[in-house]
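Here's my example:
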Amino acid sequence: LTSGHELGVDWSNLEATLSRSPLQTTGAKFIVNSTTTANGLLYGLHLSQRYYDVSTVLHALEQYGNVKTLSNPRLKVMNGQSAVISVGQSVSYLKSLQQNLTSGGTGGGITTSTTTAEISSIFDGVLLGVTPVIEGDGFVTLHIVPIKSDLISLEEREFTGGNRYTFPKVDLREASTVLRVMSGEMVILGGLIQERKEDKGSGVPLLDRLPYVGKAFKYNIESNKRVELVILMQVKII
């Protein structure tokens, strides 16, 4: 989101830009027709269709900031069944660590040690769950649950006995809605805004590494950016 649009995309202003009609694979095209008359050629401008394509929506969003496509999947779902689309990565971390000491032999002089580690994982990215119910009149009822998970950091702590555990810090944004749309229409989900802090450093090569005086030859730039996740979903009955 650029400066002046920190509150997110104003969807009411886009209603005049976006088409309320079902989307097609191609956008509107202008065709020039010519007709021969007694006075010469008569040219007419013809609009092939009034529909818009998905790129029209993306271009409309560019007035609010820099648009970046994260994923463009196509998914077929049976009527009444649930489906999940995930875009991101699974990050593993040490959930627990247990060490067992066993003494044996004459006088207990032999000691064996076994370590048991439990590894868990957390998802870092976008999850989209959808359940469609097809109705007899061509409408589709959708239960949609978008989830945005961002792994902020992995903090390691030590407890009694020397065991160390890793605790993930996650920024989680989730929404849930039920919609009723016609086949061919597009659903737009927005409002999942995140503030990102960026710390970029730069300096004079070699001089910024000098001890004691190196700090005088480098600097850091801190900036805050607000990013809004927008999900475009076109629904089509096959």
In short: Strands lie at 30-37, 40-47, 83-104, 110-134, 139-158, 164-174, 177-182, 186-203, 218-234. The two ends are 36 Å apart (CA to CA).
